[in-house]
Amino acid sequence: MNAPATTAVEALPTVKPDRLPLMLLPVLALVALPLIGSASTWVTLTFAGLAMGMIIFIIASGLTLVFGLMDVLNFGHGVFITLGAFMATSVLGLMTGWTTSTSLLLNLVAVLAAMLVAMSVAGGVGAVFERVIIRPVYGQPLKQILITMGGMIVGEELIKVVWGPQARPLLLPTAFQGSILLGDAAVEKYRLISVVLGLIVFAIMTWVLTHTKVGLLIRAGVHDREMVESLGYRIRRLFIGVFVVGSALAGLGGVMWGLYQQSVIPQLGSQVNVLLFIVIIIGGMGSVTGCFIGAMLVGLLANYTGFLVPKVALFSNILLMVIVLLWRPEGLYPVGKK
Amino acid sequence: MSEPLLQLQGVHTHIGAYHILQGVDLTVPKGELTVLLGRNGAGKTTTLRTIMGLWQVSAGSVTFEGDNIGLMGTPDIAQRGIAYVPENMGIFSDLTVAENMILAARNAKRAEDMDAKRLEWVFGLFPAMKRFWQHPAGLLSGGQKQMLAVARAIVEPRKLLLIDEPSKGLAPAIIQNMITAFQELKRTDTTILLVEQNFNFARQLGDQVAVMDGGQIVHSGAMADLAGDEGLQQRLLGLSLASHQ
Prior knowledge:
The complex is a heterodimer. By secondary structure, chain A is mainly α. Chain A has helices spanning 20-36, 39-70, 78-94, 96-99, 104-134, 141-163, 189-211, 213-223, 225-230, 235-261, 268-283, 288-308, 310-327; strands at 168-169, 179-182, 185-188, 263-264.
């Protein structure tokens, strides 16, 4: 078979990887250092910020993919966080002997069990939520906002029915309590664990997205779902899968957030929801890498401003979002949707 | 004309309040290249999208290999062996050329899973695809993107290719490449329904031709008859193709 003569342009333009958004993290940390004054306090605050950012990333990553794939704005995402956190109170409540033991292994098993149960229940409820609440309003953004917010309120009330309206303690297992010293800086063990766990989730997610066919389909679907369907793939099945995994990750994030705060309230999800949307808007809706950087920025800034100017901390993240959007109106890593 | 592979009978399509296709009757014979000509807004793209299930048929039937596919979902239609190259090419610009091709090869999880012989044949048609295999598709030129779009459609054998304006916006040299590639494809007896506005491009490739206007087929027959009949051309050109002269 004869090949046609090639007259196409032979060289491609070279485009440097966009690392500017990545630079924001060290820049923010370095700017904060002289303002904070004490290096040990800075280290403590930085780890606290990174831990908070990792937990927010775990929760928000599913939300950004759900939006990217189907343009679905799920304001009910917070209910999976609350559900996960309350499931953890029940599971760890049944394993008090294990969590109060000084054995690291028993502590780990208890926390892992709580996480697995929380993820399974949140994922299962997510599947029902998608079928009953989201599916009837595909392609109708206003209805999506209203009905998912309604779903969130109903979910919150159901959680109150099951676990009661009061705050419930979610104490850290014995081996997770306390701090370790990095030089003069005290860093809570649980924050280190959160950072490591967050990095593991990010690494797994990145690997799945870049090394598997499902990941390829998700990345393609975020860009142009119609073309993915034209290639013979059922994007709705993919979306359901992503929705369930996203809900499960929110459940996992709920457990981590609850342990971070050491108590859980039924309004947890609705409180975190605002942060989640700030993060995915900053990152570029549909972008996992953007979501990761956005979450880290939000976590760091909340901790630095909380220490430096507590009154500003309340709206520092909104301010961050405004600044980022003035710089990049579609977020740090905009997804090139069709 | 050989036996029909695809038949549209009295197909109507509405997009919102607009009645775009108003009773399209079209036959695409097996193993031939049928060109769908017509001015902007005649309904050519809507016809392809309706066949592909991207717009719903309001009335009429779309028959492929004897089965009515008019009410099927797009993935089911694609799985029956119909490939679609949209007007905007549908390239996933954040993915590499290789990843775009892997997606089109439905059973392949990695590049190594693809039919190597077939892939070499595709590279023979579009050498740029081999050269830029690991490059992001978004960096390709317009012509290379069009090549990738067609390469993706043929990376596995398909029964029918629906291709929307492959010459649009391309430089003459690239168009000639594209013509050579389609002529090679024709030698493999692939059935193609090609939407075009460029009559010179169309007449070099078409076995059959259908002309659309106002959401209906206003002429259909052999391309050779249209190409050799100035009167017929004049009548149709006067009707809808004047802008292509």
